[in-house]
Amino acid sequence: MAFDDSVPLPRLLLRMAEFFRDESCGQCVPCRVGTVRQEEALHRIVERTGADAAGDIALLREVGRAMRDASICGLGQTAWNAVESAIDRLGAYE
Ligand code: SF4
Fold first, then answer.
1. Kind and range of the H or E run holding 19
2. Strand runs (DSSP E) across 1-94, as ranges?
3. Which pLDDT does position 49 carry in this prediction?
4. What residues contact 41, with CB distance under 8 A and at least 6 apart?
5. Looking at ligand 1, which atom is closest to the CA of residue 29?
6. Ligand 1 pocket: which residues have CB below 6 Å?
7. Which residue, judged by its Cα, is nearest atom 2 of ligand 1?
8. What is the pLDDT of residues 46-87, one digit of tens each?
9. DSSP state of 90
10. Distance from residue 34's CA to the centre of ligand 1 (Å)
11. What is the pTM of this model?
């Protein structure tokens, strides 16, 4: 997919997080809980536009590492990739 700069990145990431939360089968804890926590954090970030999101970004990193390292299958292992990339490479939420 390609997007221009008119696409609101935080809302796009929230939609992706909703997808991963929906698709998690719930078999393993890192993915079952992590995808929910990821979506919750992104919701908070989107809703308080302009406020400091540092705490939620730290939470997203911690949850993302747990999902990547401990999930059983590729869905959980990659559920945080787009958010991580947006934070590290595109400066989302700054
Ligand atoms: S990582 Fe895979 S097995 Fe584990 S809950 Fe997610 S979808 Fe299910």
1. helix 9-23
2. none
3. 59
4. 56, 59, 60, 63
5. 5
6. 24-28, 31-32, 71-73, 75-76
7. 73
8. 887 556 788 999 999 999 999 999 999 999 999 999 999 988
9. S
10. 10
11. 0.89
